[in-house]
Amino acid sequence: MENSLMADRKSSPAGQAGGQVLEVNDLHVSYYTDAGRADALDGVSLSLNAGEKLGLVGESGSGKSTMALAMMRMIKPPGRIEGGQVIVDGTDLMALSDEEMLKARLSKIAYIPQGAMNSLNPVLRIGAQMMDAVIAHKTPLSKNDIEKRCRESLESVDLDGGVFQMYPHELSGGMKQRVCIAIGILLQPKVIVADEPTSALDVVTQRQVMETLDKVREQLGAAIILIGHDMGLMAQFVDKVAVLYAGQVMELSTVKEMFTDALHPYSEALINSLPNLENKGVFQGIPGLAPALLRLPPGCSFHPRCPKVMDHCRSERPETILQNGRTVSCHLFSQEENQAA
Ligand code: SF4
């Protein structure tokens, strides 16, 4: 039997596949430290349609988690959102009051943080924690309706109704992660941001949890941003991949284009670093270190590690170029470069 949690969304226009539900425009976030200002997100733009799945990848410190927190307006001092828009279903979250943003969390955009399952309160039953999450977001629903919704949400992530009465220590890691997904979808968000949702799980459970996440995404018609560094997992799960480096999107392509014909030298390096038959399953790594945000190199921030570096890469920052529906930020694809070739 279809539960009302999913039925409500299926009947809503926003749930129909295809329409744009997320637009991020020129998002900037900085952290102010004693040593100076670090630009953790430096003009990130992307968009997603209902039902689409985007993977956000990059090395540690590339800005992936900052991006998730900024979209939720959860950046804390010394960090600051300096500018940009995050438009979900026609509403710019950056323009909302704090009270309006509180309501928007869970109902427009939900966040499943890294290690979410460890943040469940050990002394509260799962049902109570779920109901508290709904009440905290100021929903107009009655207590009975909230409980009904919580139970339906558990059912949607393939958990037995009995979980409502259980404590976190009575659940396996995979079940706890499902509870976190169930909390995330309680108010039928249009966008779900999941930060490494399966990193603490074994490979088999990882796959099952990802399948559950995919199922609820499809039922809700929500778009998903999956944050991670596991390109293999991304390849199986997402439609598009955005590669972040030093707070900038270096390339955004479909997963097939990315894996068969990556444009940006950094995307290429990320893919070549994956274990495969040629390198006998050995993890290769990318030469050099990711730059410190406080001391970004001039020009293209990837230039000290780039095997294709040209003279002007060291001084001129590349523009973001749209090429056959893909975006890439690299001088190799600039008009002048192509004309000269
Ligand atoms: Fe390499 Fe230059 Fe492209 Fe940067 S702009 S990725 S340094 S070729």
Question: What do these coordinates show?
Answer:
The chain has 341 residues and is α/β, with parallel strands linked by helices. The chain folds into two domains: 4-11 and 19-245, P-loop containing nucleotide triphosphate hydrolases (Rossmann fold, 3-Layer(aba) Sandwich); 263-277 and 285-341, no CATH class. 32% of the residues lie in helices and 23% in strands. It is built from eleven helices and twelve strands. The chain has helices spanning 4-11, 64-71, 98-107, 126-136, 143-156, 173-184, 203-220, 231-237, 255-260, 265-272, 335-340, and strands at 20-33, 36-49, 53-57, 79-88, 91-92, 109-112, 191-195, 223-228, 240-245, 248-254, 321-323, 326-328. The protein has an eight-stranded mixed β-sheet, with helices on both faces. α4 crosses α5 (143-156), α5 crosses α6 (173-184) and α6 (173-184) runs parallel beside α7 (203-220). The longest helix is centred in the middle third of the chain and has 18 residues, at 203-220. The radius of gyration is 21 Å and the shape is globular. Mean pLDDT is 88; it is low at 10-17. The structure holds iron/sulfur cluster (SF4). Iron/sulfur cluster binds next to loops. Iron/sulfur cluster binds at residues 264-265, 300, 302-303, 306, 308-310, 313, 318, 330-332.
Tags for this model:
single chain, 341 residues, alpha/beta, Rossmann fold, eight-stranded mixed β-sheet, 11 helices, 12 strands, 32% helix
Quantity of strands, as a count: 12
Shape: globular
Q: Report helical residue fraction.
A: 25-40%
Mean pLDDT: 88
